[in-house]
Design a protein that fits this description.
Blueprint lengths: L7 E4 L9 H17 L10 H5 L6 H8 L5 H20 L9 H10 L3 E6 L3 H11 L7 E4 L8 H8 L7 E5 L2 H9 L3 E5 L14 E3 L10
Parallel strand pairs: 1-2, 1-4, 2-3, 4-5, 5-6
Helix pairs in contact: 1-4, 4-6, 7-8
C-alpha cells in the first residue's frame, strides 16, 4: 500500500480517540432529570442512539437540536450540568480512550507528524482530558470550539490552517469533520467505529475500522 504524503493530522476527539458514551450518557441523563424536575420534559426512555446523536456538535448546536425553544436559563444550567458531570466522571476514572488510541498518537509523533487536537468541545473539557491522558505531550496544538466562539469546524480550520504544516488530513467520526476536511482541501479519514451514521461518512477518502488502522496509511 502506498503511503500518503502528509505533514499534519487534525484529530477529532469524542468518537475518534475518546470512547465518549462512558461519560456522556450518565451526564446527559443527569441533565435530563433536571429538565424533568423543572417541568420541561416528560418521564420517558431515551435510547442510546438518541443520546449519542448529539456528540460531535458544539453545545449551542446540541441544544438547538434538542429543543430550540428551551428557556435560556434552563438550557444553560442543563448544559453546565453535562460538562460538570463529564469532568467529574473523568476524575472518577470512568473516562477511556479507544484501544490503541494513545499508542497510535505516540507512534505518529515519533514518526515526525504534526498532531493537532481539534474538537467541538469546551475549554475546560479539553484541558481536563489533556491532563488525564497526557494529550498535551503528544499534540503539538490543542484547538477547541469554545476558543473560537463555537463557529463551525470548517471555519475554524480555515482560520488555523496557516499555523500548521501542509499537506494535512483530518480524522473524525461525524459529518462536521468530513465537511471541514473537504472545504479546506484535506484528506479525510472517517472513523466508522465512532458515533456518526453511515451516510455522514460516505464521501470520506479513507475509512478506518479502528484508530490503529491509521498507521497503515502513514
Amino acid at each position: 500500500m502506498e503511503k500518503l504524503n502528509l505533514k499534519t493530522l487534525y484529530f477529532d476527539y469524542d468518537g475518534t480517540l475518546h470512547d465518549t458514551m462512558r461519560l456522556y450518557k450518565p451526564a446527559f441523563m443527569e441533565a435530563f432529570a433536571y429538565l424533568r424536575e423543572v417541568g420541561v420534559e416528560e418521564d420517558r426512555v431515551i435510547p442510546d442512539d438518541q443520546i449519542y446523536q448529539y456528540l460531535g456538535y458544539t453545545a449551542p448546536q446540541m441544544w438547538a437540536m434538542y429543543n430550540p425553544n428551551l428557556d435560556p436559563t434552563i438550557r444553560d444550567h442543563a448544559s453546565a450540568l453535562i460538562t460538570k458531570r463529564m469532568v467529574q466522571g473523568m476524575k472518577e476514572g470512568k473516562a477511556a480512550l479507544f484501544d490503541g488510541a494513545l499508542e497510535t498518537l505516540k507512534s505518529l509523533k515519533k514518526r515526525g507528524y504534526h498532531l493537532v487536537f481539534f474538537s467541538n468541545c469546551k475549554i475546560n473539557y479539553m484541558q481536563a482530558h489533556a491532563q488525564m491522558f497526557g494529550l498535551d505531550q503528544v499534540f503539538d496544538a490543542m484547538v477547541c470550539a469554545e476558543q473560537h466562539d463555537f463557529i463551525s469546524k470548517a471555519d475554524i480550520l480555515k482560520k488555523i490552517l496557516k499555523d500548521h504544516p501542509q499537506p494535512a488530513a483530518i480524522v473524525g467520526d461525524r459529518h462536521q469533520d468530513m465537511t471541514a476536511g473537504v472545504e479546506n482541501g484535506l484528506v479525510t479519514f472517517a472513523c466508522d467505529y465512532g458515533y456518526g451514521k453511515e451516510e455522514e461518512l460516505v464521501d470520506a477518502d479513507i475509512h478506518l475500522q479502528s484508530i490503529t488502522d491509521l498507521l497503515t496509511y502513514l
